[in-house]
Amino acid sequence: MARNKWIPVVIGIVIFVVIVGIGLVGGAIYFFSHQVAFQTVDTPTGQQDFEKIRAGFEGQTPFIELTGDGEFEEAKAVVHRELATHPTGKVSTVRIRIWSPEERKLVSLDLPFWMVRLMGNKPIDFETGHGGVSRVSLRVTAEELERRGPGLVMNHTAPRGESVLVWLE
Fold this sequence. Notes:
Blueprint: H1 2-35, E1 37-42, H2 46-55, E2 64-67, E3 76-79, E4 93-100, E5 105-112, H3 113-118, E6 124-128, E7 134-138, H4 142-148, E8 151-157, E9 163-168
Antiparallel strand pairs: 1-5, 2-3, 4-5, 4-9, 6-7, 8-9
């Protein structure tokens, strides 16, 4: 008889936990989606727009340089850690722009820097070459990026014309 009284209580607790869990997941998705600005523009002027942004970084040494063509030559990464001299706390946003001449699309991604800190000290992987033939693994932490300070992180053009520009603000 006492067992029958506990069954509705246990079922009620399980339903409550499921509803709260769904609410937390939905709230987290909503929160993160409103923190990230993502836009893909199919535009004939994308190349000019990309080059105009790139021109703003003329003369700056990127924090990460990828060398090699990625198809016949193994890609190598050079990280200019000597640029990591700024105090932490000066970076608020990571801005990424990708231009694809084949698709004529300009992809814009803006991330708050606190999201980069959430990734911890995991290595950043870049795939280069046709179909990701070459793989470059870097050990660059969020703290090193933050100590780089506002400025150019990467400016790379792949052999087939795809261009990636990453900077911190």
